[in-house]
Design goal:
It is globular, with a radius of gyration of 25 Å. A hairpin with a 4-residue loop joins strand 1 and strand 2. It has a two-stranded antiparallel ribbon with strand order 1-2. Strands 3-4 form a two-stranded antiparallel ribbon. The chain is mostly helical. Helix 9 runs antiparallel to helix 10. It has 14 helices and four strands.
Length: about 350
């Protein structure tokens, strides 16, 4: 084969990385190796069904943490939502583009990273917002707005940063985005209704939902590790692994910093930080599968799995650090106020004398 993506200079130079003439076939003098997906069609279907079921019931439990008046307040005063949208669609695509430049990724690698950076926030951010004691009402509102905006922002951002990919509308999985929106709104609405009509059941549902999520998360991680873990380590370059680790980390830090500059409350800062760094990698995976044949995309279609691994690990690390900080930080000294009444003065119509002592 005359052209390979690794021989092409520039970030989005010719031959175009979305052209079928560019292949991930690896040719040597004595043999030819064509990349084959380590995930069978049956396993792919099982994983998708597994994820949908677990997310649906887990999102119901998150809905039980929300209150209608607080949701309404975020829509009426959307300062936090606006900051999150700017961070999500302003910083994350830019960081993906700059990381591709900084690490001199091949055109196909850079485009894969860019697609991930242009994706909206995902449901996983809601669980991590809960883990860092964030504002759950703000988190769900932010996720909903992010997914809605993705219908227009993903094509626009991909067009701007990739210098005009032809047939861009075919690359954006509008059906998948709408399904992601429904998977956020419908179960959350059920949880909100339960919390509003029968709040006594909410704590039980939350505990059950989080327990199911924890067990299924461990099971899913083991399944992915057994299925594609060895493949990921063998075929993905160190530069791409570093890029996947820096993207969510930079998003977490930038979202928190930007919300701090605009003086949001602590729980809202943590929420914006988590929402910014967590991308909907499932949409990225769908784009890569739909837009590129396997012989073109090669092992890069597994990049969303790598991103999820780093995203989850870093978010869990932040959650553990935060929990340890809140648990072991030195408690502030409380002031006890005692009031003594001078009976004589009281009898004469004078005010009682208040004496404040600190312990």
């Amino acid at each position: 084969m005359d052209d390979t993506t690794n021989q092409t200079p520039g970030l989005y130079g010719d031959p175009k990385p979305w052209d079928a003439s560019t292949s991930y076939n690896i040719t040597s003098p004595n043999s030819t190796f064509v990349f084959e997906s380590p995930i069978s069609p049956l396993m792919d279907k099982i994983m998708n069904i597994f994820i949908v079921i677990i997310l649906f019931f887990s999102m119901i439990s998150l809905g039980c943490t929300m209150e209608i008046p607080k949701i309404r307040a975020h829509f009426l005063r959307p300062k936090g939502v606006a900051i999150a949208v700017v961070a999500q669609y302003g910083f994350m695509p830019l960081s993906a583009f700059l990381l591709g430049k900084a690490f001199r990724l091949s055109p196909m690698e850079a485009l894969t990273v860019l697609i991930c950076g242009c994706c909206p926030g995902g449901s996983v951010s809601n669980f991590f917002a809960l883990a860092v004691q964030g504002d759950m009402n703000l988190s769900i509102v932010m996720t909903t707005c992010s997914i809605l905006l993705a219908l227009g922002m993903m094509p626009l951002l991909l067009y701007l940063y990739s210098q005009g990919i032809p047939n861009i509308e075919r690359m954006v999985p509008y059906t998948g985005i709408i399904l992601s929106l429904l998977m956020t709104l419908v179960p959350c609405a059920i949880g909100i209704a339960i919390n509003h009509r029968a709040p006594r059941y909410s704590p039980i549902i939350i505990k059950v939902g989080m327990s199911i999520l924890l067990v299924s998360g461990v099971a899913f991680s083991i399944m992915v590790g057994v299925t594609i873990g060895d493949t990921l380590l063998r075929i993905l370059s160190p530069r791409l692994l570093v890029t996947a680790s820096l993207m969510p980390l930079s998003g977490f830090l930038f979202g928190y910093l930007l919300s701090s500059i605009f003086r949001l409350k602590g729980k809202c800062r943590r929420t914006v930080g988590v929402e910014t760094g967590c991308q909907n990698a499932q949409i990225c995976f769908t784009v890569l599968k739909v837009a590129f044949p396997l012989e073109v995309i090669g092992p890069l279609f597994l990049f969303p799995f790598v991103f999820i691994i780093f995203q989850t690990t870093e978010a869990l690390a932040f959650a553990v650090v935060f929990r340890c900080y809140t648990r072991f930080k030195a408690p502030a000294k409380d002031k006890d106020v005692y009031q003594t009444v001078d009976l004589k003065a009281e009898g004469e119509g004078s005010e009682a004398v208040a004496i404040e002592t600190s312990q």
